[in-house]
Design goal:
Cathepsin B, Chain A, 2 domains
């Protein structure tokens, strides 16, 4: 018996119909006239072949993310930002995917981690009528795309589990167009939608769960405050674990008597690498944000980010956070946890403490002072083409406190410290107080339920309630909450059991 060749395969037809065949072209033309091929054109513009035999899930997702014009927020190669299979590694190591493939739940996790909206359904969580409705909706729009997870055997094709996007729909014939990302094997092809449902309604032996489909769409606005946080970054993993697992236990202590105790309890037990998390959030995009060649869209994103940070700083919770972080008893203890020595926040604090030492006539004694608040401002002189930087802060020691302003000379090799829309450091890059406030707001409400004092509990609930937040900040906080809970599911290996990520936005 002759062995099947390894240069392409003959597409079993029926049941599939080759997209490039006469009948396939006829179906395509009729579907265009019916308006059910709108999603096809964006997808075909970014149609790609999986780079590894087991990368079908990664190829399908990167193709859809690029078709939706979602900015990955990090570089691919050279200066270019672009989704590639190699960048989709935050929920499963690439080597593992290369060897074993990837599960349905992990692809859903990746899509969410990449900043997309995702609605996912296993076949036992949906019906063929719902599936048909979703395929029709995405085929008549280019705002969402369907990725199907199915078993090839149902179509008499070689192979087992596979992922591919659905490129269109022929309503009269009830057929779906599969844009097979294994183009080295089979070309795009039309299949009966009922048979595709049957192919999805199979069990993945690796998980023991049904396959299914997911709807991937673009968020109305990309997150601006903390961007999209990858669950691959170790400091984010430990921070998320601390907030979701350990904080509720800490708050159940009888020692929590008021809001100050609550926040102090949270802050004094932060993970040892929380400083790395702050540095990652605040510093990782600094160079890109300062690029003078930013597009109007990117400049708009930075303006939104500045507005979000401003709204964070206007919350009642932020005022409590800054009071705690700057309290004389806690500031030096927390300082070591909150920031690496080379962060701008600590540099500014160090400058102010040195200035306080000079004013006290004790040069070199900056370690005897703690800086409660700092800001960095850039000013342009009227008659000269130069800028000056002023670092301001409130410095405390065992005797009292004093305000300090220090003039810092700019390096001639550096450009102006002013960035788009703002000259203030805090306007462009979140500091510890900004990040901590956002994270506390993003915690699920049940986090605080262990507080035994009912009055304190109610006061905390009032402070962390997102119902009264401005719509822009509320959207940011809900996105961050979804990421926290999604990461917890990933690390608890629960992404296969429960695919509902978007319900977090309702909490």
């Amino acid at each position: 018996m002759a062995m099947a060749g390894l240069y392409r395969r003959i597409l079993p037809s029926p049941p599939a119909i080759d997209f490039a065949s006469s009948e396939g072209k006829k179906l395509f033309t009729e579907a265009i006239h019916s308006g059910t091929m709108e999603g096809f054109f964006k997808l075909i513009s970014y149609f790609q072949t999986q780079s590894e035999p087991a990368y079908c899930g990664l190829a399908s997702l990167s193709m859809v993310l690029n078709a939706l014009a979602i900015d990955p927020g990090r570089k691919w190669k050279g200066p270019w930002r672009w989704f590639d299979e190699s960048m989709l590694d935050c929920c499963e190591p690439l080597e593992k995917v290369k060897d074993k493939g990837i599960s349905f739940g992990k692809v859903v996790c990746l899509a969410h981690c990449a900043g997309a909206n995702v609605d996912a359904f296993r076949t036992n969580q949906s019906t063929i009528e719902d599936f048909r409705k979703y395929v029709m909706a995405c085929s008549t729009s280019d705002d969402c795309h369907v990725i199907s997870s199915y078993h090839r055997g149902t179509f008499n094709q070689t192979g087992t589990g596979h992922f591919s996007p659905i490129g269109g729909y022929h309503a009269e014939r009830d057929m779906a167009l599969i844009l097979d990302v294994a183009r080295f094997k089979y070309p795009p092809h039309w299949v009966p939608l009922a048979l595709l449902w049957e192919a999805m309604d199979t069990v993945d032996e690796a998980t023991g769960l049904r396959r299914g489909f997911m709807l991937v769409s673009r968020r109305e606005r990309s997150p601006a405050l903390l961007y999209t946080l990858t669950c691959k970054h170790e400091s984010w993993i430990t921070t998320a674990k601390y907030l979701t697992d350990e904080v509720p236990v800490l708050l159940s202590s009888d020692n929590v008597k008021d809001v100050k105790n609550v926040l102090s309890t949270v802050f004094t037990s932060l993970p040892s690498d929380f400083a790395e998390f702050i540095k990652w959030v605040a510093e990782v995009r600094r160079k890109d944000d300062g690029d003078q060649d930013l597009s109007q869209e990117e400049k708009g994103r930075l303006a939104i980010k500045e507005e979000v940070l401003k709204q964070v700083q206007e919350t009642g919770l932020y005022k409590h956070v800054t009071d705690i972080l700057s309290s004389e008893n806690l500031v030096c203890q927390i300082k070591q946890t909150l920031g690496p020595q080379d962060s701008l926040t600590n540099i500014a604090a160090s400058v102010c403490c040195q200035g306080a030492g000079i004013f006290a006539g004790k040069s070199g004694t900056s370690d005897r002072f703690c800086c409660r608040e700092t800001s960095v401002r850039c000013y342009s002189a009227t008659n000269i083409d130069k800028s000056i930087t002023v670092v301001s802060g409130t410095v405390v020691n065992g005797i009292g406190e004093q305000g300090v302003d220090m003039l810092v000379p700019l390096s001639q090799t550096e450009g102006s410290c002013c960035s788009i829309g703002s000259c203030g450091y805090s306007g462009m890059h979140p500091a510890s107080s900004d990040v901590l406030t956002a994270l506390l707001l993003a915690l699920p409400p049940e986090t605080w339920s262990g507080i035994k004092d009912k009055e304190v509990l109610q006061e905390i609930f009032d402070l962390v309630s997102i119902q009264t937040l401005p719509p822009l900040l509320q959207e940011e906080i809900l996105h961050l909450r979804a990421q926290l809970l999604m990461l917890k599911r990933c690390k608890d290996n629960k992404v296969e059991d429960d695919l509902g990520f978007r319900e977090f936005s309702k909490q």
